[in-house]
Amino acid sequence: MSEKQERTIVVGTRQSALALTQTGQVIDQLEAICKTNGLPYTFEIRKIITKGDRILDVTLSKVGGKGLFVKEIEGALLEGDIDLAVHSMKDMPYKFPEGLINGAIPKRVSPFDCLIMKEGDSLEALPSGARVGTSSLRRSSQLKHLRPDLKLESIRGNIDSRIRKLKEEGFDAIVLAEAGLSRMGWEGKISATLSSDICVPAVGQGALGIQCRENDSAVKELLALLNDTDTELAVRCERSFLGTLQGGCQVPLGAYAVIAKRDEEGPLMEMTGMVGHPDGSLLLKETLQGRNPEQLGKLIAEKLIERGADAILAEFGGEHE
Ligand SMILES: NCc1[nH]cc(CCC(=O)O)c1CC(=O)O
């Protein structure tokens, strides 16, 4: 690598506990990379309060959707107020604004959902008619499909406030991503992991995306060292599925890709895509293997459309996960 100029790299983040924690973890990793590679960079955190954070009491679809969390951070990047931003991959809109790229997808942690329960340690242990808190149509469609007796109820807020609401609002269980809990060091709160057979995760769940300016070659070269190729391949499959189905809004769909095997032709991916009716009456799933991530995601989406996914998507576009 050529001689690098000293620089303070400004990292923008939302101010939720999870956002701050995962941003801190990425900075730790980047500092280690700088040390190993003799790069003269230091890092500074800048907190950004987004519109999505200010309006926590209104259904997100009414105020403009999930992109709200990301839009102001993207603006700060484009203005040069910050140099990189750590996002949960599953919160990133499908389309990036001109001038910004995803510079790295670090190694994924658990992609799965889990239950935090009042008592018990499995989905089966939930009593008939139990109240389960989730605002995700993807989660409710799959749980309702398996357990039509359950009462799925909306719950919003950051993961810390949702955990508080489990008790305060008398839920029997809430559904959260394991990734957020493990990043917070709260794995001990998990009652049961929901495998991808039971609940296909959200596109990109458990992975982070590190956004930067396309013309910032120093940051791009640094971020390339943080990228995890297997995670990137999986996330590209899943996001191609997302893009083919609806290009950005949040709807009752999920996708989970893994590297099935590696041979002389390279990695072979396997992905399951799902689209479901939020009341659980219809759950469409398709699993296929392929070598090209974009083609695999698109093919699975097209198979599901053939089977009727477009009717569900037309009815439930624009909801928040
Ligand atoms: N929808 C909010 C959200 N966005 C990212 C995560 C954490 C999981 C991840 O990074 O994929 C969560 C919380 C949750 O769904 O439980």
TrEMBL record:
GO biological process: protoporphyrinogen IX biosynthetic process
Catalytic activity: 4 porphobilinogen + H2O = hydroxymethylbilane + 4 NH4(+)
Domain Porphobilinogen deaminase C-terminal, chain residue ranges per copy: 233-305
GO cellular component, as recorded: cytoplasm
Enzyme Commission number, as recorded: 2.5.1.61
Keyword Transferase: yes
Swiss-Prot/TrEMBL keywords: Porphyrin biosynthesis, Transferase
Modified residues (S-(dipyrrolylmethanemethyl)cysteine): 249
GO molecular function, one term: hydroxymethylbilane synthase activity
Family designation: Belongs to the HMBS family.
Subunit structure: Monomer.
Misc. remarks from the entry: The porphobilinogen subunits are added to the dipyrromethane group.
Protein name: Porphobilinogen deaminase
Gene: hemC
